[in-house]
Amino acid sequence: MTPLLRILLVDDHTLFRSGLKALLQRQADLEVIGEAADGLEGVKKAEQLKPDIVLLDLDMPVMNGRDALAQMLVSQPELAVLMLTVSEDGEDLAECMKTGARGYLLKNINADFLLDSIRRAVDGDSVLSPEMTAKLVARLRTPIPVAPQSELDSLTPRERETLSHLARGGSNKEIARALDLAESTVKVHVQNILRKLGISSRVQAAVYAVEHGLEKL
Amino acid sequence: MTPLLRILLVDDHTLFRSGLKALLQRQADLEVIGEAADGLEGVKKAEQLKPDIVLLDLDMPVMNGRDALAQMLVSQPELAVLMLTVSEDGEDLAECMKTGARGYLLKNINADFLLDSIRRAVDGDSVLSPEMTAKLVARLRTPIPVAPQSELDSLTPRERETLSHLARGGSNKEIARALDLAESTVKVHVQNILRKLGISSRVQAAVYAVEHGLEKL
DNA sequence: TCGGCAATCCGCCAAAAGGAGGAGGCGTTA
DNA sequence: TAACGCCTCCTCCTTTTGGCGGATTGCCGA
After folding, report:
1. Domain housing A18
2. Per the confidence metrics, is the pTM higher than 0.70?
3. In this predicted model, what pLDDT tens digit does every residue of A119-140 receive, in sequence order?
4. Does strand D come within 7 Å of the CB of A173?
5. Distance CA B94, CA B128 (A)
6. Which of A103, A116, B107, B176 suits a disulfide with A82, CB 3.0-4.6 Å?
């Protein structure tokens, strides 16, 4: 016999979960082992129950599906997660698949397609709603323009220099040595960087620097 | 009744065409109106016969499927063309879909999937073999190869989770709140992360996380 | 010439991080 | 059973940060 596939349902609509559960339980090889009504609860249940697959809604209170997905994959990178949502947004799709969702299904799919998708996802395949396949292909045709130059220009040259050293992990004292400054001066620069970037810790500043290709300066 | 879907088969294997034709003709709503054994011939027939959909092989003499696809779309931009091939190469897939193929199917698919795909493609949907969906998604993820696992898998799940929060700029206290832990526990995790990654500050850890695509997790 | 700004420093303070040790629980594996 | 790794938490300690408040110099443009 085929091993039982243990399923976790995460969706904030109780009725939707109930219906889905009834539908899935009719299959001999499927078992719903848990439910959650928001992302945070979903992450916890995924951790506790170690399901074979998670059906995850996108739009939920407390923690949305995207973040929940990310959290689940941190502790269980091989977990099969199928997004099950109403969002036909190509951005949502791309984000989820990039993050590592095993599939992205719209709630308008029929039962057979869902069942088939569940089994395929557990086997390691990626599955998409037909409509979303088209969106993904469209994305392929228009890569992504992106080129945001930003509040980075509001930084003074010295501040940028300080930031680049900061992003390499130096302490204020080390940065001061490297730039031949007093530590107090470096602290002032760091303060200004934080204020201008609207953040509150040097760690965030470092991440910002890396994401803007500033760490190599 | 549903209108007849007029199909053109382009494949250099005669036997494959025969079999496919027999299969398709069994469907009341499908009709094979023409065949071609190479890309050039395929382009001509597509021009003459104005089919609703073309099933097009990739590897063919005289003119390959990619070029034939491009040619067909010049004169009939709205023509539905399904690539039907043995190539599981992600490059082939991406090229064909960029050029404008309506779908990319491997020859190992079953009949039902093919019939379903034909009807969906004519309706304007994009269709992919399940295996190729995974390849496309993988392409989406390429910016972050994730591949260089390295020291990263020396981290325990909890440490990875801690690291991902750290990379978002959270203080130990905030991470503790997020993970529902004591701050002291988070400090232990951070210490272990620093030791395992061979670095000496949380800033470096955050940078490492970002460069390894772990910050969104 | 004056105001603004970048850049350089001070001191002070509370909070956070880094580092070392120990310790109990829990599950897997030898 | 014992050993091991992981997770959890603790204390005690030093160093680093973040966040104030100043201050001085020099440059540039209105």
Report:
1. 5-141
2. no
3. 999 988 889 998 888 888 877 6
4. yes
5. 11
6. A103
